[in-house]
Amino acid sequence: MKSYKIYIDGQWIESMNKEQITVTNPATGEVVGYVPKVGETETKKAIDAANNAFKSWSTTTASERANYLWKLYHLLLENKEDIARTMTMEQGKPLQEAIGEVMYAAGFVQWYAEEARRVYGETIPASKENKRIRVLKQAVGVVAAITPWNFPAAMITRKLAPALAAGCTMVIKPASQTPITAIKIMDLCEKAGFPKGVVNLVTGNANEIGKTIMSDFRVRKLTFTGSTEVGKILMGQAGETVKRISLELGGHAPFIAFEDADLDKAVTGALASKLRNCGQVCVASNRFYIQESIVDKFIEKIKSKLADYRVGNGLEEGVNLGPLIDESVYNKVEKHIEDAVNKGAKIEFGGKGSKAEGNTPGHFLQPTLLSNVTEDMLIMKEETFGPVIPVLSFKSEEEVIERANNTNYGLAAYFYTESLARSIRVSEALDYGIVGVNDGSPSTPEAPFGGFKESGLGREGGHHGIEGFLETKYVSVQI
Ligand code: NAP
User: Fold this and answer.
1) Which active-site residues does the annotation give?
2) What's the rounded Cα separation, in Å, for the pair 213 and 453?
3) Among 228, 311, 336, 360, which residue carries the largest CB count within 10 Å?
4) What pLDDT score was predicted for residue 361?
5) Ligand 1 proximity of 353 Cβ (cutoff 6 Å)
6) Is the pTM of this model over 0.90?
């Protein structure tokens, strides 16, 4: 089985202590490969390299930086099958979904290849005749990116592309469960010809790498995607050197279907927003509020669609629901189902899983539909990260908005209605960074993705996504 290397200053290197992380396939338990388990020493080297490269990279023209990104974009498209296959093997998502993710990941590189050339400053009319005021946008400096396992390619390019477009250099630390996809993206960065030190990648001990990054003054920005729990730790650590931070954290999305919705559209949207990546998605719907008069019909329609899902190894033809990533995620999902059933929920579909023991294959769970759900259940409060659809009913628009907003999370919300007035009213009233109106899959490179409240800080994607990598400098000229 292949041993991979980390990428620092344009070189592929092994860990100094020779320790490795074993990457396994969540569907089969087989070893996919080994990556270095590094800590402080290599992370400091990566920061040195990014810091040394910053001066020359940040002063290249926007058009030069755009050209490197265009090369990377084309390489991602040319290699999409290979990257997708790796992703399915280490993360579990069905191959077609993995190909979709590589295309989505490439979309960020394409978008920021275009945006690199549209970072504009300002000229502000001064209040004194003999003064001129210019506002410049400049690269923030060395950026560290820490990414999760659920979208191993897109969560990297959503950070890498705007950072490099802005003129920043980078140190990337991918999740330990899915580092090989990240290493393959680094390989393409090398092929695209980015100068040495511009992008660097380390794999290994999260705590040690994190502390090294967070305590190093030269890293001027952290961009993190992961759990709210780890996001809070990093936010605290950022205070030491007053680092800029962007945080894309957890969610607990409400999904609302009003009685004036097109029910078939709502059912399709519900499944799209819940079952992609086996429910292991930050913007996955976690609570389904269906208006009283249509709740029975909704449950029947969802039930009939769930019968079409085939659970299994994502590399097998016809499989459209892969395994959960590991035992701890499986246990949490199982606990949410058990807790709901103990408190009176009814399993309308699924509910059964198979948990890996010893060398037997992975943690699979049938898509599961629950009715008679109440607000006191764990599933209504914690992010589930699994293929479970808990259904509740509601009476009025006012009531459901209040219930939907009653959470510390604020990432995504979805609702279905055919009323134009209601679509405007409700989208304005929901306390969420992303609202899908009759749209179960709103994520796209052109739009600003991010959350309110404990779901994070800052936005990724759109022209907004590059702002977090830029400083604003005001130049006052007396003439
Ligand atoms: P996680 O446990 O927070 O890990 C995310 C990353 O942080 C991994 O690279 C992890 O490294 C690293 N990490 C863990 N502890 C750390 C520490 N003390 N210091 C520095 N780095 C540390 O999250 P996850 O389980 O991978 O991902 C799932 C979570 O991400 C969910 O809550 C999901 O909602 C959220 N998410 C949010 C978005 C968004 O855009 N808002 C998108 C995708 C996922 P190791 O892997 O080595 O432990």
Assistant:
1) 248, 282
2) 25
3) 336
4) 82
5) no
6) yes
